[in-house]
């Protein structure tokens, strides 16, 4: 006992890595990790953790519908649970945005598992249909006030399995801190990269039919958001050409404290993504770009800001263009080779934006208790830019995946993308 009182912890190497990226944990030919039931169950962790379920729908007329549940734990306080919904079509100048704190949140609801949840204001119920063309689905019902109600069915096609980067319980996780087994925090994303959506939205008493495609993401940030990343990029491209195409990507840039060589070596960019062709998942990408190092390996997963300019509204360098890139081995056994895709996205200038839905002032949207607990006291003012635009995805890959693919194919569709600046 006395020896333990007087003992000291071994010194920590000041140059020890303080960020452990998911892309470094798995070989390039093992990036696809199929989702298991527990992967999309609500964790509802304590401490400082933000957990979300996000459902994105893009309709053929260029409307974006986002339904999102946010479970925010803030230390010793009770968690705050929000339901947010955005319906937007910038080409028509339409936008409706609702964010409400829900009451009586529960998971699992009676008769369901923890992939489902409900509250007085909404229900999101998971269903399994093992012998169907769509073996899994979610039914969303939300009453967000007299001016907005939502009823949607989100279905996953049979040949588009949900994924995370890497198999098993460690799949998908990037860890923060010196010891990944006793991490200071973590971040993880799980995806259904292409879904079919149908139902209706009621705006001001008028029902509007909804039919489109989109994406489901279950994400957890297991530490304060301002310590996870200094910025984020997100892309969700969907098209009905070639039998159904999607290209999705999520990347983050670590804060200065979290890098390969200890505090002060941050700025690592870790990205994950996937490509779907013919309503079939064909590749999963993950790459980490370390500051001062050339990228290694053959897999590419990147979002590059181009032609940046200072936005006086936010004080951040907003891109006028973003180039999204994917490159990875095919995961389809009968179609060996490499799948490569590029998506140049034109966003316009500050004065003449293209497809801009909104510049979201994050601190204006979250409850006061979260502002205090998250502790954005360093003068940061996080903003999320949101756009939706027509896009052309250039793809090359094995001919077995689609006719003409070996020589390159351009696919027209819609891209919803975000650029988030935190510090």
TrEMBL record:
Keywords assigned: Cytoplasm
Highest taxon of the lineage: Eukaryota
InterPro entries given in the database record: Ceramide-binding_SVF1 (IPR051385), Svf1-like_C (IPR033394), Svf1-like_N (IPR013931)
Source species of the chain: Pholiota conissans
Location(s), subcellular: Cytoplasm
Signal peptide: none
Annotated ranges, domain Svf1-like C-terminal: 223-423
The protein's name in its UniProt record: Oxidative stress survival Svf1-like protein
Keyword Heme included in the entry's annotation: no
Keyword Cytoplasm appears in the UniProt entry: yes
Family membership noted in the UniProt record: Belongs to the SVF1 family.
Domain called Svf1-like N-terminal: residue spans: 50-221
GO biological process, one term: response to oxidative stress
Annotated GO CC locations: cytoplasm
